[in-house]
Task: structure prediction
Amino acid sequence: MPKNKKACPRTLSGIRVRFAPSPTGFLHVGSLRTALYNYLFARQNNGDFILRIEDTDRTRYVEGAVESLLKILTTVGLRWDEGPMLDGKEKGKFGPYVQSERTKIYKKHAEELIEKGHAYHCFCSADRLEKLRETQQANKLPTMYDGLCRGLDKSIIAEKLKNNQPHVIRLAVPKEGSTNFNDVVRGAAAFENKLIDDQVLVKSDGFPTYHLANVVDDHLMEITDVIRGDEWLSSTPKHILLYKAFGWTPPRFAHIPLLLNPDKSKLSKRQGDVAVEDYLKKGYLPEVLINFVALLGWNPGTEQEIFSLPELIKVFDITKVHQAGAVFNLEKLDWMNCEYIKKMPLNELVKICQPFLVGACLEVAGQKLENIIGLERERLKKLIDFPAAVEFFFKEPRYDAKILIWKKSDQKTICSRLKTLIKFYDTFTWDWSEQWIEQATLDLIIKEKLENGTTLWPMRVALSGREASPGPFAIAEILGKEETIKRLKAALALLCGK
Ligand code: GLU
Result:
């Protein structure tokens, strides 16, 4: 497909876009990005953002999927102007917004196409179609319907219909010429008609296919711009032919790039999570997911990476979306979540961390919890890591005695340091605060000619049970004097048997 001329950016009014997910079980991160780009485009043009549920493929329908979808969009802040609402009602004057409730509309439109000669009944059996496909494959031909029923006599059709012979309705695709359109992201696109299949519009169960329902709805709902994933690009000529057959003007199209795994394969479940709900469950913040997916396939052309939703509305530009697939980089997502966690007001962070602690049976509240979270937030990538990271504040840690030994030091030295610390804190009369513990301990190190490493390393490990943790004085303050001494004694017993 030639990728030269791009569609021009435009001055816009009356913009109407839609997010049209199929309720097949979960919201893919790629779909979240599609929803976001539509939302941003609508908001920056004072347009309408419509939610339409495309549930005509009943074999893929999953109970509860619509509700969970509405909840996620609400959680991440993508408010829609029209469509099904969480209270079970609908908003907007173009409804119903759920395709399974619109079957009569599609039927009427399919009949209209038959009358106009742009569609036809096809009675070919699944068996015949399978054989046809095999023969075409064997002859290295494109696999497509051969048009056998296209010229059927009206009386034969009437007879077959009268006998309730199973059938589908297909679009009569012109055999000559090409179908061209200008994609906002992909530029000029051209597809030869002779390679476009006579697609099925209505299936044998009477339900419309995606193509028919999608085009009819986009037209009736007065959608001006279709922003959707690249995987639909090859369907677009079929849609344009349908618009032409109906005598309608097609909307503008923008096909946004595929999401890829780091190895450049298509982002798949096999290589990690793809469901937005899984990321939320792990404690990636909703605003981070929005910020992160916004940058998959688009960037503002500056170094800035952190954007709130209102900022994105200001700077997002659909005409600057890239054509190349966008790599889903989990490390970057972790980094971004960490940045948000670091900057979030402490009381808010405490509030959103609490359910994760409760879930891990670590219940604590008040000032102590604030102190712990304040201390750990720098290290936190996602909220689900939080209980494990702070567990040692609540429970005596278990660890391997060997990690108490600082670098090239030895057991004897570390045992001696632990003893010195225990003795020192036993008689500690200063205020038990990070600042005073630090100052007094550092003075002791100088006075007794100890080294920082051989003293502070085992102290930190004794208190936290880990090699990486906040500093020993901050932990000691939160634990309290008694617990600090208790843990130092436990370390001494563990390493030195005393
Ligand atoms: N129902 C389609 C999907 O699941 C929508 C495609 C479109 O936006 O046209 O992605």
